[in-house]
Amino acid sequence: MAIAKAERLMNLALCLLGTRRPLSKRELRESIEAYLEASSDDSFNRMFERDKDDLRELGLVIETVENLDGEVGYLARRDSNRLPAITLDAEEAAALGLAAKVWQQARLAGAASGALQKLRAAGLPEDVDPYEPHGALEPYIPVHEAAFEPLMLACRDHRPVAFDYRKATAVRPEPRHVEPWALECWRGHWYLAGWDRDRGAERVFRLSRITGKVRTRAGRYTADVPDVVTVRETVAGWAGEIADRSALIRLRTGAGYPLRAKAVSVRELGGGWDELEIPYGHGLDAWLVEFGPDVVVLEPAELRADVVDRLRAVAKG
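Request: output the structure for the sequence above.
Response:
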């Protein structure tokens, strides 16, 4: 069946590329044997629409043209589907190969391999092997969340989505309606940046806290999509990497070395405790909770309250 479909797609592509005028569905059906064997008009229509979408997914630019009689036709102009020669030096080829290798353990492995084959055909030097097992670099981006693939497609196609999301301070997930902008991997965790329609504001969601299925929704975006740099800064801020103030905490002696590494100042209090001044940004409360009874927040009051809320949520299960 896979061979039959590949042959059908090839025949459809040749028909669309070989014509000088738009071909109607009827003409395409009469020209391709697999379409002639379709059991009904509905079966042919479904098969044709799938094939057309598959060819577009592969990169073929298919135009839809309506003639004076109102009949719809299709063609793929050669000038629209011809790429200039691609020339890559050794460094560029190595970088592209390394990028493809990143996804070999993720859901994008097939797409990465396919893209690499296209680059080979377009001039990627044969002596560059991105899958060489003895390379000095072994990139790896973990993608375990089921929400990654549907959100990646939604970001690409600009489709609003809906999903259930459990905040760190909440016991149960809540429904969210989001216009997804971009996915970012930050310190081993995937985040979605987008426009939260329910709250009318920009939000960042950690994929590991999305429960259930991601559902796409019809309609267009209602908010402008910022550039990539802005999205990266947004994710960094929500991940706690951007601090605009300081917090004062009490830390048990001999514990919390990651906190000590970030500390602006450390003062011994005696009795097995030290006082630390650390940068305070979004997400610090979630990080402090991980240290359990070894950390006590002194100030500011809102950070202390956030940590207490998170601890209570954990205690409730």
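Residues 155 and 180 are 5 Å apart (CA to CA).
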